[in-house]
Design brief:
Number of domains: 2
CATH class of the largest domain: Alpha Beta
Distance between the termini: 58 Å
CATH superfamily of the largest domain: HUPs
Helix content: 40-55%
Radius of gyration: 26 Å
Shape: elongated
Length: 538
């Protein structure tokens, strides 16, 4: 039994603005969280992945009006036609999908607000500032840049490159300023709370400058698409204050029944909250302060990953640099999508996407490296032993080296995941892919097969390589689940379901019994013709 049995792992993505169609930047975040969730589930933990959509705010109201529909109808349409299909496109195994227009969320946002109001953390006041509708956020002067083109001579949002609006409002405020030192003390006591270190340093520098109180409501005289302030129905809740609470409303916060209370107790605080670095301050400053005010513990970790860049710029629908995930998966498949973005970019850093790099890695690492390895090994078991796994004889140094590298790959990959270094985890796994390919090249089983005197050695070589494929199937299951399911159907049926294989035991050798049937294997990563090759065929 796994030592992790019964342990909970709760990972969240940000909930995405329903207003826009999802691009590969959104999918990147989803896949990272999904890989973490699947990995911890493979450890034997009770893993829970939450994702969802943020559906309130002025931006959505305006877009719905432009499309001659209601905000709710607009949100429903986009969830059904864009956001839920995204999860299928990139093979996300989430345990919940929260929408901020759901009663379970709206009701318990009000519970949270009322608690903070009753305990003196919310007051009524006036504010004047520069408001970006795209960010749904007031901007400081330091957040603005000089506009270009149509907006030359104006101050624009650095993220959206559009002018801000000067607003003066009487709203309700959260006493964020009271938490400056409390947060700094928390960061010092919990050095891995914000990761990577570059993100931690940025947030701490921001908080050291002092925090202002946060406007958490909007007058219905401005717009009314949001959750009513429970003690004043002439105001609605600021969309970010509402949205952040999804992480606890989805798992039972505010509910009175025993099952909801038990679920919340089990899952909170979250293990890892994965966010893009552009929304890091909300999650690493405002969110923990909100929780502290409510007497709740912050998450164990907030991880701010970098941006995906296309042509040197951050993904942006407004700038026409957004790429739909299906543009990639329709050609390369969801496994290749997941592998590429988790391997090619150091998680936590910015990374550039290119079709050329994707195609090259697909061919060299997935098709030739892993896929061809599996196909060759299984084909040789059928060719030389009629599809039955032969027994291993005495191990040589070369065989023991494979075993040692397999054990190291398991340990190193698991340690990397613990640090949310998904790229390093895959690199650790690939040491075994490379070792097995080299092992086959050196051992030359096709030569051994020609001489009856070396048949025993041939059996050991193929037994070793099949065991190596077993280890790879377990380690790569969280990353390329479709390919590993195919591989496991060929080699692993005698050991039970792939999802049930304990990751900690993956490096333990000789789990297959000699005589086990090995089925035929279809290509894990079929060859993809290039545009030039297709043109030549014509």
């Amino acid at each position: 039994m796994s030592a992790n049995k019964g342990k909970s792992f709760y990972v969240t993505t940000p909930i995405f603005y329903v207003n826009d169609a999802p691009h590969i930047g959104h999918a990147y975040t989803e896949v990272a969280a999904d890989v973490l969730a699947r990995w911890h589930r493979q450890r034997g933990e009770q893993s829970f992945l939450l994702t969802g959509t943020d559906e309130h705010g002025e931006k959505i109201l305006r877009t719905a009006a432009a499309n001659k529909t209601t905000p709710q109808e607009w949100a429903d349409k986009l969830v059904e036609e864009a956001w839920l299909p995204l999860l299928e496109t990139i093979d996300i195994n989430n345990q919940d999908f929260i929408r901020t227009t759901e009663p379970r969320h709206e009701k318990n946002v009000q519970v949270f607000l009322q608690h903070l109001y009753d305990t003196g953390f919310i007051y009524r006041g006036s504010y004047e500032g520069n408001y970006c509708v795209g960010c749904e956020e007031y901007k400081t002067e330091g957040d603005l840049i000089d506009g270009e083109g149509d907006f030359a001579g104006q101050q624009v949002c650095a993220i959206h490159s559009k002018p801000v609006e000067k607003l003066q409002e009487t709203n309700y405020f959260f006493k964020l300023s009271e938490f400056s030192q409390t947060l700094l003390d928390f960061y010092e006591a919990n050095p891995t709370f914000i990761q990577p270190d570059s993100a931690r340093n940025e947030v701490m520098a921001f908080v050291r400058r002092g925090l202002d109180d946060l406007s958490i409501s909007r007058s219905k005289e401005k717009f009314d698409w949001g959750i009513d302030i429970p003690w004043d129905d002439s105001h609605i809740t600021y969309v970010w204050f509402d949205a952040l609470l999804n992480y606890i409303t989805a798992i039972g916060y505010g509910e009175d029944d025993a099952a909801s209370k038990a679920k919340f107790e089990q899952l909170w605080p979250a293990s890892v909250q994965v966010v893009g670095k552009d929304i890091l301050r909300f999650h690493a400053v405002i969110w923990p302060a909100m929780l502290m005010a409510a007497g709740l513990a912050p998450a164990n970790q907030v991880f701010g990953h970098g941006w995906l860049l296309v042509g040197g710029e951050k993904m942006s629908k407004s700038k026409l640099t957004g790429i739909a995930p299906a543009q990639i998966t329709d050609t390369f498949g969801s496994d290749a999508f997941r592998y590429y973005f988790m391997k090619a970019i150091a998680f936590g850093s910015d990374g550039s996407f290119s079709w050329e790099d994707l195609s090259a890695r697909y061919q060299s690492e997935l098709a030739n490296g892993f896929g061809n390895l599996a196909s060759r090994v299984i084909a040789m078991v059928h060719r030389y032993f009629e599809g039955v796994l032969p027994a291993a004889g005495e191990y040589t140094d070369a065989d023991l080296q494979v075993q040692n590298i397999a054990k190291a790959a398991v340990a190193d990959a698991d340690a990397a995941i613990e640090k949310v270094a998904i790229h390093d985890a895959i690199s650790a796994v690939w040491t075994l892919v490379d070792e097995l390919n080299n092992y086959i090249t050196v051992q030359e089983p096709w030569v051994l097969a020609k001489d009856e005197a070396t048949r025993g050695r041939l059996a050991t070589v193929l037994n070793t390589t099949v065991e190596g494929l077993r280890v790879l199937a377990v380690l790569l299951n969280p990353i390329t689940p479709k390919a590993t399911a195919k591989l496991w159907a060929a080699i692993g049926t005698t050991l039970g379901a792939l999802d049930d294989q304990p990751l900690a035991d993956a490096g333990t050798w000789s789990q297959f019994k000699a005589g086990a049937a090995i089925a035929e294997l279809e290509a894990l990563f079929p060859r993809i013709e290039t545009a030039d090759e297709k043109a030549e065929e014509k």
